[in-house]
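Subject — a protein and its fold

Tokens — whole-number codes for backbone shape
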Amino acid sequence: MNSVFIIDDHPVIRLAIRMLLEHEGYKVVGETDNGCDAIQMVRECLPDLIILDISIPKLDGLEVLCRFNAMSTPMKTLILTAQSPTLFATRCMRSGADGYVCKEGDLSELISAIRAVLSGYNYFPSQALNASNAEEGSNEELELFKSVNDRELMVLQLFAQGRTNKEIAKGMFLSNKTVSTYKKRLMQKLKAKSLVELIEMAKRNALV
């Protein structure tokens, strides 16, 4: 029986995933709602598969993914998220993910992805890996987003969700000054003149 660990900050989603997995014969060995606890708990239980949402507090999912990938014991990680695959799927693949599933899809796709990943295959939406096929935003904007690093992208997403500098700093264990620096870099890289323009661009590209 394959063991699975769930990382998602929504209790209802964790419960739904757990029920689905147990019905399909998988053993859920643990779950948590944040990145910091996830690192420690996964080290202790060493699951066969980790199901990870990249929008989690304390330590964002992309950073968690990199840390899992750096562990001495290799583990398979499947991303289950509401984030735009156009912007995030390739980043997750580069960070070591084995698969990517959108929460908006049917739950049967999650099971298909789990089976594929546990069998040694990758499971990514093919159209998401080619930015030229994207429908969200413009091609010019997608090119600009390529210059934005993973941490900056997560900060932009939080701004787009209406979070303040102080809230972002607290949730990501950063200083207010660091968050302000990220905002300045984002405005430069995305050629935005204000935070309002940044947020509008984030919405056009399905970051919220």
Summary: DSSP finds ten helices and five strands in the chain. The radius of gyration is 17 Å.
